[in-house]
Amino acid sequence: MNLAAFINHLVREGQVTVVNQLIPFTQQELQDTQTILADYYQQDILEIPGTAPDFDAAAALWSAGYIYRIVQLAMLRDAGTAQLQEWLTPYPLPQTAAAIYSADLCLRYLPDLLSLSKGLAPDDPLVQQIRETAMQWPFSSTGMNLPAQGDMSVIISSPSLLQAYADKIIATRDSGRCDIPAVQQIVTASLGNYTSVLWPDYKY
Amino acid sequence: MSTPPKEMVMLLPAAQYAALGAVRCLPGLTAAMDRDELWLRGIPYPEEPHPLILQLPALHTWLLNDNAQLFPMGKLTPVATLKQLNWISLPELLPVMLPVSGMPALLPAREPVQLAPSAEPQSGNALLTTFDNWYQYANMAPATRLQALSFATSADRQVLIMGSPLPPIPGQEYVLQEQLLLPAGYSFTPPGITTIVNQQLNAAQTDLLLFRTNGHWERIPTTAFVKADRSAVRLTQKELEHG
């Protein structure tokens, strides 16, 4: 299954297969994948609060390739640190609101991928890599019990992303992400007078 | 030459036809209406007439022979000829009707069912508001507040939202009692009539009945409700805009 088919199955059915060879994506693959992701974006923005950030094709494509490589590397098992560095390259551009939201179209599966890697040792380089990426992309990693790292100002300054982030935190009961005042404030406001019903363990 | 009489004929006032009820079951009797007169024939002669026949309020009585000649009682000379009439049997002339049943007592006065302010506090289960209010809220509302709700929209941009907790937007709150949505702060009088109203108006139990404070009500199928996803609200907005 190439990258385009992988993404298509992932967003529609949640089930994927990958080829067992680490080879670069073709231009056609990337083009087809971008089309699928753009369609998925149009469907997904119906659920995002307020006005959704724009579609960032570069970020969406990077995240699609990234999780595809994670699945491949998790299957291969014998991949070393050198291979991880070669195939799991970090996002090279600034994390704008559009990039965060577009990358989330695929990075939202990071928690599932970490579960997929549970068979590996906790200090396995791939597991470490997934955890590191999750912390760098906090919008996509709620519920993983990992601290948010890096600059949160982009999420906080976007009303749409901030509310969606609060929704994710509440849905996954990730109270650790509420240590930032602006995030805590919107989570508290979202629960309103119904904290005891909607999140009984919320302590802020 | 006249033949001997074989039967007796009576003439009665038509207005007293009900008197024939007493002889309705006697065999062989037939009757005919002729304007304001009622003719009765088939009374056997020369046998003695049945006592009930003798009690009839007859104007005249004749004997009738085979040539349809009418003889006054005890006379040998006919005085008239019986007219050609439409003779029918007494059961046909006097059909039986069931008597009206007597009521054991006076019916109680009708008690009007109406909504009246209630002293009993109740939390709302539904909110009736405008779609614009709902859209504005749902557009940025926390997902956790939307998840517990469902909504139904009318063509005139009214929306009924159900669930708990209800959204903090302007509108009329309603309390769900069985399948009836009553305005918050109101209840039916007489008390305890809700079940009967529900059974009378909503026998199939497939709809919700929304009552206004003025007593008007409307039927809302439960199939009209959709889960309150943000996408559902936005797609409804598009649908309303484009008709």
What would you say this structure looks like, in words?
Chain A is mainly α. Chain A has helices at residues 3-13, 27-44, 57-76, 81-87, 97-107, 110-116, 125-136, 153-157, 159-172, 181-191, 195-198. Chain A is built from eleven helices and no strands. In chain A, helix 6 runs antiparallel to helix 7. In chain B, helix 3 runs antiparallel to helix 6 (230-242). In chain B, 18% of the residues lie in helices and 33% in strands. Chain B has two domains: 7-93; 115-242, no CATH class. The relative contact order of chain B is 0.12. The chains are: A mainly alpha (204), B alpha+beta (243). The interface between A and B is medium-sized, with 20 and 14 residues.
Question: Which key features would you list for this structure?
Answer:
heterodimer, A: 204 residues, mainly alpha, 11 helices, globular, B: 243 residues, alpha+beta, seven-stranded antiparallel beta sheet
Protein topology:
The complex is a heterodimer of chains A (204) and B (243).
Chain A (H helix, E strand, L loop, with lengths): L2 H11 L13 H18 L12 H20 L4 H7 L9 H11 L2 H7 L8 H12 L16 H5 L1 H14 L8 H11 L3 H4 L6
Helix pairs in contact in A: 1-2, 2-3, 3-5, 6-7, 9-10
Chain B lengths: L6 E7 L16 E5 L2 E8 L6 H4 L5 E5 L4 E4 L7 E2 L6 E2 H4 L20 E4 L8 E5 H10 L2 H4 L2 E5 L4 E6 L8 E6 L2 E4 L2 E4 L4 H8 L5 E5 L5 E5 L4 E2 L2 H13 L1
Parallel strand pairs in B: 13-15
Antiparallel strand pairs in B: 1-3, 1-4, 2-3, 2-7, 4-5, 5-6, 8-14, 9-11, 9-12, 10-11, 10-17, 12-13, 15-16
